[in-house]
Model the fold of this input.
Amino acid sequence: MPSVAVIGSGVFGVSGAKELRRRGHDVTLFDPGPVPHRLAESTDISKIVRLDYGDDEAYTRLMEGALERWRSSSLAPFFHETGVLFLRRSPLEPGGFEHESYELLSRRGHRLERLDRRDILRRFPAWTSEGVEGYLNPEGGWAESGNVVRHLVREARDAGVRFADRVAVARLLESDSRVQGIVTEAGEGLRFDFVVVAAGSWTPHLLPVMKDHLRSVGQPVFHLAPTDPSRFAERVFPVFAADISRTGYYGFPSTGEGIVKIANHGVGRDMHPESGEREVRGEESVALRAFLGEWLPGLAPAAIASTRVCVYCDTHDQHFWIAPDPERPGLVVATGGSGHAFKFTPLLGEWIGDALEGKVIERFAWRSPCHGKGEEQARHQG
Done:
């Protein structure tokens, strides 16, 4: 039975460990803990699950498969299909994220609802209706991200994955031009047939060879406490993206505790995943209030219950990195979520298992670094 060390207990690592165990591997997952790690990108109360990817048919097709799994797998209790509302300040025009998403999904047989300002005023009164239009995609919604990871951890343990969840990895153990295991921070060398590095934003710090391919980017997240949370219940306030390729803002309906989460899927700021500056800055709070005043005036005065900084692990092109190292046999890198991987959770494990077996999706393959604008169309602002 081939032995595999998986480094990292975020959604990549746990999904991969579970799938590799299912395929007959002897799997040990390493993480400094606790699990789920409080600083991991996949931690928090919610993540969007959306089909909408502009004119990118490849991601759209993959998400169609992932969405069916969200509905039918053991993850279904943690998925809430509220629909996703896409709005913008100007008409939907060719080349824009919303227009291209609408056109592609419609061609693929999805039934979306176009909305003008009167529709928005009538159905979603929290939004200002002046100059706003868009569409509602009834397919999609949000997932309880932290609970999803906890559930996957339980499933992986039940399947026989061993968790070394208080063990930090210092480096890889290499010999004869091959990765043969890991060395812990305590100095213990442990041999494995394969190593899967799924350490998210920590990956380029553990693997210096990845520093030209990955960067850690902080994005602000706000949990607001409106005085009347019922105005933001999912029936009248579904998951949304507000001219996201320009503003970066997206959000969620009120939770049972009356919290409305709003975050930014934007350019972000470079930071180490354990940076002491991992706090929302004053200018980010000011920008949020300006956005709310323009788009959601009823939410603008809401108190901020808490904040966090979500640190993305970005690839240069914003495509995931799930591939074996062509120069170091025995090593697979599975990371680079770039702020949009969580929605693919039901498929991540299979992609990682395939990569260890040498079968890689072309856009997730090992590749040379490049410069310029990434390809994920929802993040083209800045």
In short: The longest strand covers residues 303-315. DSSP finds nine helices and 21 strands in the chain. The radius of gyration is 21 Å.
